[in-house]
Amino acid sequence: MSESESQRLDGARVAILVAEGTESVEFTEPKTALADAGADVDVIGSETGNVQTVENDLQEAETVEVEQAIDDVSADEYDGLVVPGGTVGADTLRFDDEIVSFVTEHVESGTPVGAICHGPWVLVEADVVDSRTLTSYPSLQTDIRNAGGEWVDEEVVTDENLITSRKPDDLDAFCEAVVEAVAEDVA
Amino acid sequence: MSESESQRLDGARVAILVAEGTESVEFTEPKTALADAGADVDVIGSETGNVQTVENDLQEAETVEVEQAIDDVSADEYDGLVVPGGTVGADTLRFDDEIVSFVTEHVESGTPVGAICHGPWVLVEADVVDSRTLTSYPSLQTDIRNAGGEWVDEEVVTDENLITSRKPDDLDAFCEAVVEAVAEDVA
Q: Tens digits of per-residue pLDDT, B34-55?
């Protein structure tokens, strides 16, 4: 990475959500990509403490520390947001009303919001999918269409400030698109 | 259980679905309740072999043998169907088109279909929720409403042949309602 590349997101502050059952690589890779590009990345969950992430949905992966409870943060402090997948993790995130409001505020404010795999369930819950084009893990496509979204099967889809991908294999493209969107937003 | 009680479902044949990540008690308790009432219960999955069930979504529970692959069964052979939850299990079931068609055929034929916790996602995928009243694990309520269903927060909801419950704590009421519905159907 060139010097200029590593400093593109200097001064940017990005939120990443995590919960019990978040898919490990869908958390760590976007977090690392954003930090490597110079952003400050805050790990946000329902409450502070440690949560268990997973690999392939059901195998235990590393424990992650939630640095900021959702009660203590405000969407307008951030220049971007990442919503990882994990079937259980995404289902857990959508079940927290404050997390959902935080996501709605991000999307409505126009800051970049990336969601991957089962993460777009949180976008459905946040009621921000209507008339937008997005992708997700394919098992969510009916939920996304029923919420008024147009679901497409692509590695990464950018529709205004919504960036979505299907699965861990798409992470390189997803991370690049999220970093690019935050860079454009803070430029 | 009285002699007459134990024989109410004699001659009835009921299907129960299972997948990797099915919530163990939501599989074993309805299966036991139906068998105790005299029904033959077939364990059906995407393919034969063993699948790992879970407890509280992420802890390993017992391995279950899939007795019949979905390819080898037809909805009209059965007098009832049970769809257990488990976040990953239900998400996995809805991802199999043949499982989904099997569920649609059951619901449309009028035979009793019970779904608990995250199991109603499979009903959403089967496109049988529109204009029906049902419950589920509360995180699914938006998906159910977006699919045209009326979501209510009750221990067990019976709407014609659809029987739904919210969570493992509701299992006693769920099992009783499913057994009763199958008994009425085969009477």
A: 999 999 999 999 999 999 999 9
CATH of the domain at A88: 3.40.50.880
B20·A58 Cβ contact <8 A: yes
- The answer to the question of residue B159 being in a domain is no
In a domain, A15, yes or no: yes
Q: Is residue B145 part of a domain?
A: no
Evaluated on CA atoms A134, A136, A141, A147, the torsion sign reads negative
What interface predicted TM-score (ipTM) does this complex get? 0.95
Annotated catalytic residues of B are 117-118
d(CA B119, CA A48): 31
Whether the model clears a pTM of 0.90, i.e. scores above it, the answer is: yes
Residues of B in contact with A54 (CB under 8 A): 58
Q: Cβ contacts (< 8 Å) between A124 and chain B: which residues?
A: 142-143, 146
Instruction: Tell the residue number behind the tokens 């790990």, with chain if given.
Output: A43
How many domains would you assign to chain A? 1
Angstroms from A141 CA to nearest CA on chain B: 9
* Cα angle, residue B41 at apex, residues B128 and B60 outer, rounded to 5°: 85
Tokens representing B131 are 């204009």
Angstrom distance (rounded) from CA B56 to CA B50:
20
